[in-house]
Write a structure and sequence with these properties.
With 545 residues, the protein is of the alpha+beta class. It has 20 helices and 16 strands. The protein is globular and about 75 Å long.
Length: 545
């Protein structure tokens, strides 16, 4: 066998085809996994805003999962900003037209159109058969059978109830073209844009909703347009979100976002300091200094558009008399609570309102003054003899909740009120009517910049307090309707003041304790800002490490 010399070997090699180059390795995804320890993820074990109308729900699904036509500037003062609509305009007192953002991708890869927007506000997803609106074109009424055939699922009764409270006079959503819709009200409404910016008005994928085999399956893995999408939701335990890399607002900065339910404050703090959690939420102010002694960590937060309140059930024998409820309101030293439990990091507001309301804000209003003598006088006049009144609350669902309750009970006792704390495990037990209800803890948020969003929304004729059968007032209900439908701005301002007089002073439905505040601890090297809201923003413009 002949041997090839060196020249022949080189020549042969040059003549042979070169081997294919090795494929380039896929670029590694170096985005972080972020774990947030929260007090609670959801009150309803669902992620659907039309049912999960809560502070804890707002934190996990707003900005991360769900988006509306109108958004909020969470790095500013919560001003309106374009979200899934690029612009909007008034056609008349009953009609607002929206131009939709083009190229928005849902989590299932579908592109958003006007059909998805109209469907999001339709009977199948929102109002249900009992709250029928005209169909999406405003021509015919759909029957229960037709809705069932379209959606294949029934809505929990809370969903249409909340929808009617949000949009009590919505007549129809007209599809003008593929990227334009009009919302038409049955009555004039100067705050229709605000209603369409609040929680519950988010846009969903019609295909995604109809593809779910049940409402609960949908509500635990909704198909929306936000920067993150649901991978796994374990009720009362954990929510795992993955980056939605087709997000219209740019590639999300976090690969995997985890919300972990950790009820105890100490456990959230210890997990943060040990590196188990990236962030820890719902921290009481007295823990801020302790955390920040470790220079690797810092606490972010501020007051938010939410007030802590106590709410009265005037069906209770001792609370039927408005003078007893008025005594409750005068017995509270609110500033002492702010100073002692909040270290002065929040404030006593001017009733159930915010400067956010602009011209509607009543700057000369105030909460009932701390006046023990007046409280005792009212109780004597009402003939109150020290009968027990139950006070239902959860275990620190709200920051400092138990400590605040204990202080309140002592303040009430000082004027002769016999208030007995009843600890409950969940909201169902708080609202339960199998035993006598008295007072309970709650909070009230400004969903948009008008008192319709707070006072009327929670305490008016369609509000949750009246739906729960705790309180009602004929004048309040009549004026609430006027506030919702009047276009006379001076008259609306006068009506709002009268509503405050009724609900806070004459026939108290509630009493405001203090403005709420939220505080979140994190590693100092993470460039993240807390919003003046419960919502946590993990979009690209609010993240860096």
């Amino acid at each position: 066998m002949s041997k090839l010399n060196r020249r022949q070997v080189l020549a042969l090699g040059a003549a042979m085809p070169l081997p294919l180059a090795a494929p380039a390795l896929a670029q590694a995804d170096t985005r972080p996994v972020v774990t947030v320890a929260v007090q609670k993820i959801s009150n309803t074990n669902s992620l659907e805003p039309l049912r999960e109308q809560s502070n804890v729900g707002e934190r996990v699904f707003l900005t991360s999962l769900f988006e509306g036509l109108i958004g909020r500037n969470y790095q500013g003062a919560l001003q309106d900003e374009a979200m899934l609509a690029t612009s909007w305009k008034r056609i008349d007192d009953r009609t607002v037209e929206f131009s939709l953002r083009q190229g928005v991708k849902f989590h299932n890869g579908e592109t958003m159109t006007a059909e998805d927007v109209a469907y999001s506000f339709g009977p199948e997803r929102m109002f249900g058969p009992e709250g029928m609106r005209p169909d999406l074109q405003g021509q015919t009424m759909r029957t229960t059978a037709e809705i069932t055939s379209l959606a294949g699922k029934s809505l929990p009764p809370e969903v249409p109830a909340i929808a009617r409270r949000m949009l009590p006079a919505l007549e129809k959503v007209e599809i003008v073209d593929r990227h334009t819709v009009r919302f038409v009200n049955r009555t004039p409404d100067v705050v229709l844009e605000g209603r369409l910016s609040r929680i519950g008005s988010e846009i969903v994928s019609r295909r995604g909703f109809e593809s779910a085999t049940s409402w609960l399956e949908w509500a635990r893995k909704p198909v929306t347009s936000g920067p993150y999408k649901v991978r796994e939701f374990r009720a009362d335990s954990m929510l795992i979100l993955d980056a939605h890399d087709e997000y219209w607002g740019g590639r999300p900065p976090i690969k995997e976002l985890r919300f972990v339910e950790v009820p105890e404050v100490s456990s959230r703090i210890n997990g943060l300091l040990s590196g188990q959690y990236t962030m820890a939420t719902d921290l009481p102010p007295d823990q801020i200094e302790t955390i920040e002694r470790n220079r690797a960590f810092e606490v972010k937060g501020s007051t938010i558009l939410n007030h802590r309140i106590t709410v009265f059930d005037k069906n209770h024998p001792q609370l039927r008399d408005a003078r007893v409820r008025r005594a409750f309101t005068h017995a509270i030293d609110r500033q002492a609570i702010v100073d002692a439990l909040w270290g002065g990091r929040t404030a006593v507001p001017k009733g159930l309102q915010w400067e956010f309301y602009g011209p509607m804000y009543q700057a000369d209003w105030s909460v009932p003054k701390f006046d023990q003598a007046e409280a005792r006088r009212l109780l004597r006049e009402a003939g109150y003899k020290g009968e027990p009144i139950p006070y239902r609350l959860l275990n620190n669902y709200y920051t400092n909740q138990v400590a605040t309750a204990q202080v309140l009970v002592e303040m009430w006792r000082a004027v002769g009120l016999n208030v007995q704390i009843e600890m409950k495990e969940n909201w169902q037990q708080i609202f339960d009517t199998s035993s006598q209800r008295g007072i309970r803890d709650w909070s009230n948020s400004a969903a948009f910049n008008d008192p319709v969003s707070s006072l009327v929304n929670q305490h008016g004729p369609n509000g949750q307090q009246q739906q729960m059968g705790e309180w009602t007032n004929e004048e309040m209900n009549r004026l609430s309707v006027e506030l919702e439908t009047s276009t006379d701005r001076a008259r609306r301002r006068a009506v709002f003041r009268r509503l405050l007089e009724i609900a806070e002073r004459e026939d108290p439905a509630y009493t405001v304790l203090h403005q709420n505040a939220t505080f979140t601890a994190k590693r100092r090297d993470l460039k993240w800002q807390a919003a003046p809201a419960f919502a946590m923003d993990f979009r690209a413009k609010n993240w860096g490490g």
